[in-house]
Amino acid sequence: MAKIYTRRGDDGSTGLFGGPRVRKDDLRVAAYGDVDELNSALGVAREEVLQQPDLRSLVDALQSELFTLGSELATPDASKAPKEVPRITAEHVARLEREIDRLTGELPEMRNFILPGGSRAGAALHLCRTVCRRAERACVTLGASPDALAYLNRLSDLLFTMARAANLRSGGREIPWKPA
After folding, report:
1. Structural domain boundaries of the chain?
2. Which homologous superfamily does the CATH classification assign to the domain defined by 21-171?
3. Which of 28, 80, 162, 174 could form an S-S bond across to 18 if both were Cys, CB 3.0 to 4.6 Å?
4. Using an 8 Å Cβ cutoff, are 49 and 166 in contact?
């Protein structure tokens, strides 16, 4: 069995797929690290939506797509990669839009801003939304592909919509923002 550790990163560097070694605080590494953190947060959220099969299967699909996005971000030059690297496409973005529309159809009209929370599942999905926004900011700074940027932007909208649906389905509530 291969060992999980290689010791190559002990000097604070990491290898990019088909590319050079860079410092672990490199912008590209930070961007795919934020996407990885989002994927882990979705793993937590998945455990909170086990009784909502459509949300659970949606999280499963999103986690796979985030691996695709991470591999795209970890590859500075796809022509130098040892094998083909999957990419996020406009079809991925369109699918997120269809999911937003589907879930929005079961929600009441939003009449004010809402605070994150409402139920365990809703809170977990709201946390995913904020991690997604951070990943999006890192990808904007990196200059990620237009499809990747659109995907993250739409994904944060989907996560917000999923949080609302999870709250209402589980008997939770939306907590309105009341300006201080």
Report:
1. 21-171
2. Cobalamin adenosyltransferase-like (1.20.1200.10)
3. 80
4. yes
| pTM passes above 0.90 | yes
**78 alpha-carbon distance from chain centroid:** 22
Give the confidence band of 17 by pLDDT, cuts at 50, 70, 90: confident
Phi, then psi, of 85 in degrees rounded to 5: -105, 125
175 pairs with which residues across the strands? 115
CB contact set of 8 (below 8 Å; sequence gap of 6+):
14, 15, 21
Judge contact between 63 and 177, C-beta under 8 A. no
pLDDT at 67 over 90: yes
Percent of the chain with pLDDT over 90: 73
Q: Which residues of 43-57 are buried (b: 16+ CB within 10 A; e: fewer)?
A: eebbebbeebeebee
Residue type, 134: R
